[in-house]
Amino acid sequence: MTLTKAQLLDSIRKQLDLPKTRSAEVIESLLEIIKKSLEDGKDVLISGFGKFCVKEKRERPGRNPRTREEVTVKPRRVVTFKCSKRLRDRVNGKR
Length: 95
Known about the structure:
Blueprint: H1 5-16, H2 20-39, E1 44-46, E2 50-57, E3 60-63, E4 70-73, E5 76-83, H3 85-91
Antiparallel strand pairs: 1-2, 2-5, 3-4
């Protein structure tokens, strides 16, 4: 099952007893801070949860799977996530 932004918003609204609009502002602000940091090439570390990292990918040779044509994959930045040991343990049933 996927956790949607709406479900996250509703959960925060209930747990913190906030109005729906205020909960939405909190979620949107948090996501904007994370997005801005990643856009600027900064890693985002959330203790007990994990770390979002921006990685630089080099230019490399590739192939179009449909036409088998050789192409060059341009350099780009990608976001990776590495979960914390605490989160990994919870996911695996260890507390």
